[in-house]
Amino acid sequence: MLSTLLLLLKISTIAILILAALLVFVLLLVLGTPIRYKASGAYHKELKAEGRITWLLHFLSLRCTYDKDLNISFRILGFSLFQTDSRETEELKEKMDIMADQVQYDNQKEDESDREVSEGYQREETSLPEWEEEKPAKEKQENTIKKKKKSSPQKKFSLEKAWKQIQCRVQSLFQKVEEGKAFYERVRGFIENPANQKMFRRAWRMVRHILPRKILGDITFGFEDPATTGKALALLGLAWSWYGDNLKVTPVFDENVLEGELKLQGRVIPGVLLFWGILILMNQEIRRLLLRRGRKMDGGKENGGK
Questions:
Q1: How many CB atoms lie within 10 A of CB 75?
Q2: What would the mean pLDDT of 295-299 be, rounded to a whole number?
Q3: Helices 284-305 and 270-281 sit at what angle, rounded to 10 degrees?
Q4: Is the predicted pLDDT of residue 155 greater than 50, yes or no?
Q5: pLDDT tens-digit map of 24-41
Q6: Cβ 206 vs Cβ 276: under 8 Å
Q7: What is the per-residue pLDDT for 92?
Q8: pTM (whole model) above 0.85
Q9: What average pLDDT score do residues 148-173 get?
Q10: How far apart are CA 65 and CA 43, in angstroms?
């Protein structure tokens, strides 16, 4: 009897250990296998682009191409689960255009009928009775004088109302300025807090991990305003510091120009993102902000429900 119980315990423990090992293996596979992405594009008066995302030796793959039409295909182990063709999109566009034309035709008919009815009402209203047409000119002058007298106090009232509105707007403007100053001080204190500096460094490492590792490009751009071209060039200077001479940029300072070719590739490891995300969430300030946000959302839902 004891031998059978011990044998069952051994089998159950071995099965549990095998299941645990399989779970650990699956977790390591999911978190440790990088998601690779590639993209390339060219713009010479027309846009042509292609992008691909693969995971686990093409076990999952997503491909997008654009050449006057957008085509998307999603595959698992080479078998397509989702795919769009340009013919299908063109047929859908034609059907949508036909439906839109029918709706516009029906709306035009309704508008014409409404116009005919409104014109009939206007004709009935404009046809005045004979006794009103035969009023003497003196009575009309008296009525105009009375209207002017009545309109004078209304003007005074409208001026007072406008003055009050101006005062209210000025007060609201001052309140907004004070709120903006308080928000600026809060943001400045949050950024300058030494406890948050570590969080910013971790977030930057997380972003750097997502950014492409290789870039090859030759871009020519420009704006009519030289100042905007200079600002865009300063922003692209950050990319130069990371990718060096692989990215060539030619600025034009006197006309609107955009041409070039670009290729990039990179990888994202889910485990690394999870690690940095957990470290960021360990920051007390971030947790407080999330708790405040959650309380505000719950309060808004309760008020809306009431």
A1: 17
A2: 64
A3: 80
A4: no
A5: 999 999 999 999 999 999
A6: yes
A7: 55
A8: no
A9: 67
A10: 14
Residue with tokens 């972003």, as numbered in its chain:
207
User: Residue 225 — pLDDT band, cuts 50, 70, 90?
Assistant: confident
Q: How many CB atoms lie within 10 A of CB 24?
A: 10
CA 257/CA 222 separation, integer angstroms:
5
Query: What tokens were used for 173?
Result: 């403007």
Residue 230 CA to its chain's centroid (Å) = 27
Beta bridge partner(s), residue 266: 37
Query: What's the angle, vertex CA 221, arms to CA 218 and CA 223, rounded to 5?
Result: 175
Give CA separation, 87 vs 49, 91, 146, 265, 273, in Å.
19, 6, 73, 30, 39
